[in-house]
Specification:
The protein has about 400 residues and is mostly helical. Among the domains are: about 1-95, Rna Polymerase Sigma Factor, Chain: A, CATH 1.10.1740; about 105-165 and about 175-190, Orthogonal Bundle (Arc Repressor Mutant, subunit A), CATH 1.10.10; about 325-410, Alpha Horseshoe (Serine Threonine Protein Phosphatase 5, Tetratricopeptide repeat). Helices cover about 65% and strands about 0% of the residues. The protein contains 19 helices and no strands. It has helices spanning about 1-25, 30-45, 55-75, 95-100, 105-115, 120-130, 140-145, 150-165, 180-195, 210-225, 230-240, 265-280, 290-300, 310-325, 330-340, 345-350, 365-375, 380-390, 395-410. α16 runs antiparallel to α17 (about 365-375). The longest helix has 24 residues, at about 1-25. The chain is globular.
């Protein structure tokens, strides 16, 4: 129970606590180190059954981290050069960020805009924000961007150094600066939601991102009502989240999209998604996010399980998408549709043409390849591919699904 309190507090407030510390001390490394110190102290203090849990765990973590930051500054012998401003009589921005009275999605979105500063390299903005604001690990971010952990860590170090050397402000940018940061902001929101969506059971430490990204994208649409890509992302997240009630069976096993019962999907979320979808289509032609939105819309057009899956239309959309955004993730998703329309051999050839080294740590690649190999009767290779997918720590529902498929393969 006590461990659960820390885990829940870390999920709900970790990003804004780190960001509040960074805003106060203008030092990203110090913010991360101080927050880690406070979590270690919480493990010890909250694990003692003889001690009462704090009334406000998030505020406790922030205050302890604040003291830890000052201790580290003392040890560096530079506290005089980094003395924080004396607090005003009214609550400071940092206090508001650390308070549970704050509206978390609003503050998180502001901080995402702060961290997506154009002075930081384009390949590092979203990664830095996911690390600092969303609390993803270096390993998780590296997998999301299909780079090695070492490469990603080097990018983060360079980004932090750039911020320190350039004296980049941690203030929230005005509307005139939103456009130059929008691409990185949208990439950050996509990856944050993907971390929640990849776990059908909603039990991972990133599960809360699903609800938060619904709220954050709604706010972003209010801020930028004529940005088609913003509207498209809002629609995509709603189409995807509407299907969550059907993504797991009674035994806790993931249900593939084509086998989900549309009667279980959330109709209000689908209707909300369609409204965003219509607005996006009225503003723009087929861009990459527009096409991704339309693929989700195609799936959510099914009414019952008796309706055939829209594989041909989905493949046609991926054929266009791959011309606009030819990356391995799009290719893998296209291969899944290709198998249903043109055959498993064509789909497997598509996957095998990808860079296996780059995708070595990407679970969907191994899962898709295992399924195709099994359907071709190449059982030994399929079994190896299932083993590789299972070794990449899937969510519980996904793990049970992969094990179920593997047992069927082995005649179990």
């Amino acid at each position: 129970m006590r461990a659960g309190v820390l885990d829940e507090t870390f999920r709900a407030a970790g990003g804004r606590i780190r960001a509040a510390l960074a805003a106060r001390y203008r030092d990203l490394d110090l913010a991360e180190e101080a927050f880690a110190d406070s979590c270690l102290k919480a493990v010890k203090a909250w694990g003692d059954e003889g001690q009462d849990l704090p009334r406000d765990p998030a505020a406790w973590l922030y205050r302890v981290a604040e003291r830890a930051a000052l201790d580290r500054l003392r040890r560096r012998r530079i506290r005089a050069d980094n003395r924080p401003n004396e607090p005003e009589p009214a609550p400071t921005a940092e206090d508001r960020l650390a308070s549970d009275d704050a509206i978390i999605p609003d503050e998180r979105l502001k901080l995402i805009f702060v961290c997506c500063h154009p002075a930081v390299g384009p390949d590092s903005r979203a990664a830095l924000t996911l690390k600092l604001v969303c609390g993803l690990t270096t390993e998780e971010i590296a997998r999301a961007f299909l780079v090695s952990e070492t490469t990603l860590a080097q990018r983060l170090v360079r980004a932090k150094r750039k911020i320190a050397e350039a004296g980049i402000s941690f203030e929230v940018p005005g509307p005139e600066h939103w456009a130059e940061r929008l691409a990185a902001v949208l990439s950050t929101l996509e990856v944050a939601y993907a971390k929640a969506h990849e776990d059908a059971a909603g039990s991972s430490r990133h599960a809360g991102f699903a609800r938060e990204m619904l709220e954050v994208t709604a706010l972003l649409c209010e801020m930028l009502p004529r940005e088609a890509e913003v509207l498209a992302l809002a629609a995509t997240i709603r189409f995807a989240e509407a299907r969550r009630p059907a993504r797991m069976d009674a035994e806790g096993v993931m249900v593939p999209l084509a086998e989900q019962d549309p009667a279980l999907w959330s109709k209000p979320l689908i209707e909300e998604a369609r409204r965003y979808c219509a607005r996006a289509l009225g503003l723009s032609g087929p861009g990459s996010r527009i096409l991704q939105m339309m693929i989700h819309a195609l799936w959510c057009g099914r009414k019952t399980l008796a309706d055939p899956p829209p594989w041909k239309a989905v493949l046609a959309a991926y054929d266009i998408l791959v011309e606009l955004r030819d990356d391995p993730i799009v290719r893998i998703n296209r291969a899944v549709a290709l198998a249903e329309v043109k055959g498993v051999n064509d789909a497997l050839a598509e996957l095998d043409a990808l860079d296996g080294t780059t995708l070595a740590e990407f679970l969907p690649f191994h899962a898709a390849r295992a399924d195709l190999l099994a359907r071709l009767g190449r059982d030994r290779e399929a079994n190896t591919a299932y083993d590789r997918a299972l070794a990449l720590s899937p969510g519980e529902a996904e793990r049970l699904f992969l094990l179920q498929k593997q047992r069927l393969l082995l005649g179990g």
